[in-house]
Amino acid sequence: MRSSSVTETEKETRFAYYLDLTSYKQEITQSIAKYFQFAPMPKPPFPVALLVLLISSAPNTADGAISVLCNGNHYTAGDPFAISLAYVFSDLAVSGSARPGQDYYNISPYPNAFAYGHSSCSGNLTAGDCSYCLRLGVGIVNISCPMAIGGRAALGDCGVRYEQYPFV
């Protein structure tokens, strides 16, 4: 029978992912402000309200169009899905733009709570532009869908999606 105790190495790894995700959220918030050419603002009590303000203030062009959908079900604090999701977000933002065709699917390697992800960029983007767009998309869906078991963000030239279940 398998032991359910968490080793110190696993705790350190989980904490490192948490710290990476926290700093990543700050970086993405700054990127969102830069993308929409707003000066950075102090963190509001309701980040979703800020995102709605940014979206409604942005021109409705192919480059600035954003659609965000969130799964109505949520995970709780301390759920292992959070670690799987941090892995998927990081991998989508980094590896998604490096794949041929810039269409990428991934799955977290943690069997306690799998997370599944997909990212894609239009063919006219360079790898660098695709990477920037995907990081922005990951940040938007992460901020817009707090603790949701699934979400999707579509920008003009790229999109990201994650779920707690497999999809194709």
TrEMBL record:
GO cellular component terms attached to this protein's record: plasma membrane; plasmodesma
Please give, as recorded in its UniProt entry, the membrane topology of this protein.
Single-pass type I membrane protein
Entry's CDD domains?
Gnk2-like (cd23509)
Where in or outside the cell? Cell junction, Plasmodesma; Cell membrane
Its keywords, alphabetically, are: Antibiotic, Antimicrobial, Cell junction, Disulfide bond, Fungicide, Host-virus interaction, Lectin, Mannose-binding, Plant defense, Repeat, Signal
Please list every transmembrane segment annotated in the UniProt record, as residue ranges.
none
Pfam families given in the database record: Stress-antifung
Q: What is its main location?
A: other
Q: Which residues form the Gnk2-homologous domain?
A: 63-167
GO molecular function annotation? D-mannose binding
Q: Which GO terms describe its biological process?
A: defense response to bacterium; defense response to fungus; killing of cells of another organism
Would you identify the family this protein belongs to, as annotated?
Belongs to the cysteine-rich repeat secretory protein family. Plasmodesmata-located proteins (PDLD) subfamily.
**Could you tell me what this protein is called?**
Gnk2-homologous domain-containing protein
What is the originating organism of this protein? Dendrobium nobile (Orchid)
